[in-house]
Design a protein that fits this description.
Structural class of chain B: mainly beta
Strand content of chain B: over 45%
Shape of chain A: globular
Number of strands of chain B: 11
Strand content of chain A: over 45%
Number of strands of chain A: 11
Shape of chain B: globular
Largest interface: A-B, 19 and 19 residues
Helix content of chain A: under 10%
Structural class of chain A: mainly beta
Number of helices of chain B: 0
Helix content of chain B: under 10%
Largest sheet of chain A: 7 strands, mixed
Largest sheet of chain B: 6 strands, mixed
Oligomer: heterodimer
């Protein structure tokens, strides 16, 4: 009964490849997010979707494109992967008026 | 842009000792949230504070929100090895974006 699930958990790929990370939440939350955590553990927001609509788009390269087919799903597609994209990517969700974000278990992306 | 800093960056304690992490925002916050991330895990929501000067307790954890709503602290009494992890504070911007603090990594030695 995982609340926010991400796949894959690990992703090792070569520079220049295109990859996708999928996220699904079964909490009925209306807002979903992508966060990037670097090697120093800094957590930085990338995107936020509310009911399938993009509401936050941080200064992220155009190679990153989120897609939300419905309010329970938020996927992240990354084109032309670079070494600097190596990080842990977390999906999270929240409900309006409620406290706290619920995070997925993360996807560790390693670009070689 | 808005920044949320935490000190210390790292803290090593002997089991049974107390621990405190401090969180400072460059702007006034409507609320402050605290999260714990175990090694290899994901951030887990602990608590939210909303009122100026608010203090909340969860067993051995005491959370405080400053009077000016720009700083907060988390104090753990008598640490245990299960307290190991990175503790993050987080606050919303005026566009409701949640900005996370730089984190404090706690190591507890038995």
């Amino acid at each position: 009964d995982t609340a926010v699930s991400q796949t894959p958990k690990y992703l090792v790929t070569q520079m220049g490849n295109d990859k996708s990370i999928k996220c699904e939440q079964n909490l009925g939350h209306d807002t979903m997010y992508w966060y990037k955590q670097d090697s120093k553990k800094f957590l930085k927001i990338m995107f936020s979707y509310n009911n399938k609509e993009l509401i936050i788009n941080e200064t992220v390269p155009n190679r990153f494109s989120p897609k939300s087919p419905d309010k329970a799903h938020l996927n992240l597609h990354i084109n032309s992967l670079e070494l600097g994209d190596s990080a842990v990517y977390f999906c999270a969700s929240s409900r309006a008026g409620a406290y706290g974000y619920t995070f997925g278990s993360g996807t560790r992306l390693t670009v070689v | 842009g808005q920044q949320v800093m935490q000190i210390p960056q790292y803290q090593h304690v002997q089991e049974g000792e107390d621990f405190t992490t401090y969180c400072n925002s460059s702007t006034t916050l409507s609320n402050i949230q605290w999260y714990k991330q175990r090694p290899g895990g994901h951030p887990v929501f602990l608590i939210q504070l909303v009122k100026s000067g608010e203090v909340k307790k969860q067993k051995r954890l005491t959370f405080q929100f400053g009077e000016a709503k720009k700083n907060s602290s988390l104090h753990i009494t008598a640490t245990q090895t299960t307290d190991v992890g990175t503790y993050f504070c987080a606050g919303p911007t005026n566009t409701d974006k949640l900005i996370f603090g730089t984190g404090t990594r706690l190591q507890v030695f038995p």
